[in-house]
């Protein structure tokens, strides 16, 4: 090692670093940096750490060794490393100063990691002996040192000391329970918690399950100590998320401790500790919800949440008070705060009720625990509070009604399905609307309006029927004396306007526009002006042409406000700019008063000036103004469609550049244990040592170990990393992504090549963004950009041979030809995609897609990625995935099995000791969930993970065609297994789930794509799965099941055609769906009589009837003669014609009718003759309906009708002609045109 002269020289240099002379210190620091380049001086620090009498020298040596020792360690001679390790242990044992000892433990940890990485414990056996001596000592100082060293060695202990886990468990447990010195107990608590957290995702952690109750006890004893409490809460939060059920037995005690923390006063417990406890409680509720119910914890959690909510009432009132102030008063207050250096932000910018602990707890409870356990307690408590006029007892005059309303607000998202039920919703409206309308308290009127706004947002479509009653109340409250009430009324009007028809809005339009324009100009502060403009934008879009009488007044106000330049008013400028986009959309609607033409000619003169203002506004670098500007550009593109061509270049440049704006992410590191080397030391002695001279000596850089660092590049144990992200920047980028997608969809194809590549590169860059919703948004924009490539570089039209092949292929499963499809079904591919597009797919899209799938933990992002892949296949056919088909299918199967990265256990709340043994078959160490939560976590488009994977599989089955047979077995098996989790459809174990409905649709698409005989191996299994869904209350379930059943029978080959018993059962199961026609036809007739568009509840049932018709037709066509009762089926199908909604089933039904006409069977011919008039009429009506439907090709169905009439004419020309002549003129004309 270094000689004594060098060691003494270095000691003198280090001493000079602490003298009160700047020049001397700078000179000493320079000498230290130079010394650190040479190995012998680093070794000298080890000697000083052991022998120096100066605390400052030992401390600095310990820190510098932490910083640099790892890089030079591997280049030291073996004998030097042996002596260095001895010095380190001796120094640690002898060190009396706590801070020096702490830093030395991390030096030991760094060396231990390197010595034992490959050789295990044999790399440094003395270390284990040293630890055992310290731990067995009766001296508290040495026990604490042992625990601190174990804490620092956690990563090494977790990977190397596995054979000693039982001893460690006993050691930690003994000190946690029996240590007399509180510092020892705290050190043991930290060490045990760190190890359990480190091992939390593997089964090794089960060795330490007995420590968890002790850790919970340690939290209970130390939760007033912020450093200890937050660290332990982080550990317990990690354990709650663990795929290993180590926390299950401690859930009850842990929740009770957490509730005690949350109920503590602010004087007793710091707010940071309460926030951390709230986060941990939310995680426990999400991951261990069954234990919350099992231990009857719902009520205490609810009571505590209400307690916390009540404690936050003064903050709510303060926020409202700020928002009542004028803009001048707010600015003066801000100036006063800055002058007084209060360090507090302006509370007027806070959202009411947002970001507070009470709301977060209520939301977590209702989102995590099954609604049957929380609905009644929450509604009961809320209604009890609403019924009381006085303030809640013991809650510092918190109004009972405010508590009741707040409960309903923050539970709406989690209980939306239950709240949307008619009887519940009507009761809630009866109790809340009067408060909003006539309460004497502005606080209560505001909160009631917030409640109504939440319901309008989350309880659609059930709440839509109440919109006409809610709208006049909201309009009336625009004149309220309270600024905040008027602002909340604007919010409610905005959402109502988004969801109602223009005829409902029409009676209030004049009053709305007048009041909203007045508020936009004369509102007392920026907040009310902005909400008024936002509401006005929604009114414009809904009103459409009806808004044109107010066009000039609106433009005058918007022109004035969109020119504002004062910084406090830029928000208003932004909303005015966005309102221009909404006005453009209103002008783009066909106007009956202009013979169906739009009013865009009236808006067009504004565009040039509007784009100039938008560009100027971006120079302010105000992110909210930017966001609203991007939204305006997107709406402008949507309104003008291809007429946007002159503006495309400017708009594309603005939107692409927006995606490169700096996110301004800040990292706040809290390091109470001193785990990290201080930045001041790192900056002085760690940043530039690899530069400059020193090449003549094997310096630290030459001996560097690539992954050696004092803490590594991941999250260090004991350190809290908090990222601060400017949400306004993220929201601006999301708006830019959305607008970019709108521009791609509407720009003329000639302009697309100019900006597609740059747009795609910018979007791909966003896939690595830290914010999940931004990544999901990027995928959705990439999907739109894919459509742009398809438009800019289109596939050539199918030649005659390919067209005829497409027809023949469609005829095999009685489906219509897609006239827009330009690719050929099947692999190997028999067509080519433009080389430019294929290059983008192969080099940019698919590599990034697989990377995201492999690493992304957010389900919504993965759902968006799967949707992108589905749209890519839909646009470019099987060639787009040909090279990676098996890998893509493996991804899909992994999602179905719950083994994707984003499905790593969301929750695992079974108890391995429960009598009902729910864990049977899964294993205590299961690392993935079963995907039960996959209906949640939907992307921005609203498509869930399960829907996305099923849509992709269905599309792949359709595109790959018969070649999919080699993959169909595993895929269909995975789909059926997934569908049966939690009970097969119709089983006694539970109701039919949305997941099962979605899977049914995927199975139908795959079966259809396989072609004749492709589904034979599993046809009966598909049918058994579909039949129970036919009786489901959900219309989509009945529709999908009918389609699957008919398709499976049609394409099962000879498997079922002679099985009369099975086919009769299927017919009997389908007939009730045909019976739904009468009622839905009456409802549709009433709606048409009132000149109303048909609502979903009617069109959904119409589609069910149509799919059932198609299924029955396929049954009859595939059954052997005499197997099914034609006399029962033929007239039933005739009564169903023409089809109502899903005209794609016309082909199957018309083919069935044609087959019956051409049949040689005497019984079938008898049915045709006895119903000939009805048959001719039904076919004629079907032809008229086909001509009315432009979106669906009816080529093959018309062919069947032609062949049917040809057969009828051949059989009895005179009678057939008489029947045609007796038809109504429009129908006769359609038949004669054939």
TrEMBL record:
Domain of life: Eukaryota
GO MF term (any one): small GTPase binding
Keyword Cytoplasm: yes
Source species taxonomy: Eukaryota, Sar, Stramenopiles, Bigyra, Labyrinthulomycetes
Location of the Importin N-terminal domain: 28-94
Organism the protein comes from: Hondaea fermentalgiana
Entry's localization field: Cytoplasm; Nucleus
A Pfam family recorded for this sequence: TPR_IPO5
GO biological process: protein import into nucleus
Region Disordered, residue ranges: 331-353, 687-711, 911-937
PANTHER family: IMPORTIN BETA
Sorted UniProt keywords: Cytoplasm, Nucleus, Protein transport, Repeat, Transport
UniProt cross-references to InterPro entries, sorted A to Z: ARM-like, ARM-type_fold, HEAT_type_2, IMB1_TNPO1-like_TPR, Importin-beta_N, Importin_beta, TPR_IPO4/5
Biased composition (Acidic residues): 688-711
Repeat region (HEAT), residues: 470-508
Protein name as catalogued: Importin-4
GO cellular component: cytoplasm
